[in-house]
Amino acid sequence: MITSREYRLKSWPNGAPLHENFELAVVQVPPPEAGEVQVRNRWMGMDPAMRGRMHQARSYVEHYQLGEPMEGSAIGEVTASNDPAFAAGDLVMSSLGWREFYNAPGSRLRKVDPKGLPLQALLGIAGSTGLTAYAGLVRIAEIKAGDVVFVSAAAGAVGSAACLIAKLKGCEVIGSAGGPDKVRFLQEELGIEKVIDYRAVHSVSRALAQAAPDGIDVYFDNVGGDHLEAAIARAKTFARFAICGMISAYNATEPPRAPANLLRMPSKRLKLQGFLLHDHMDLLPAFQQELAAWHAAGTLKWRETVFEGIEHAPDAFLGLFTGANVGKTLVRLG
After folding, report:
1. pTM, full prediction
2. Exposure of 292 by Cβ count < 10 A (0-12 exposed, 13-18 middle, 19+ buried)?
């Protein structure tokens, strides 16, 4: 038996999640049974979409169960296997984060190869985070060189990936982020020249009007709210909006106020389309090919916010909603 720690959802959050909604449990993990694989998680990723699983309402993904281990993307190392498709030492990806060790059927695991990148990059820029940005820009927004692309939550995991990919594809990128540290990251590390510090301006709409006097062609939305309203105001005719997320409303206890300028959408002939990554997994080969080329050219850049130890998993998750992270938020488990 191996002693392991795992986090469970103790109670449903009302509004913003709190530490009291989580509980850390100690469990014994037996040797794997026939068809099972035992894994020690090394990294787990945090995603704002996890908030959508912390309630009992119907959603596109099954909600967490009270008193049961939570789930999230993770990369681990096989420590024992009773499945001939896996061997000790294999690196695997799963949705079985929030725990140190676990047994699972081999069907729930996918072997991975970092191909020269740091292992944790497969949870960020080289994984679902990067592919989400790529799908939103390439398929939903149909970006082309010369487009003016506005990205909200631009210093976050998906937002920073979207900024970088749009820049590498020849677009003029305008990012919005909160605080001078995030502004410096976007400007100095990713090379995004136009960045709006939404915490330092009176109006996002006015700031975007100054940054894009001729309007925007594409909006990659991670925030909703006043950022979506600003994007509608500055959108060119036939602009394309990729709606990835609306984190400004995730913890709302009342329905959010709709953008006040929705009536401008028909006259501008705007395209707004929400998307979920699992509908666009066929883009993975093209994304990996471009990713390899960018990595070889030395133009692939990213940032991570790393928490040490599973005991800090709630801190890592809650930080997503207070703007504490730059780039992908990860928990290193050893």
Report:
1. 0.92
2. middle
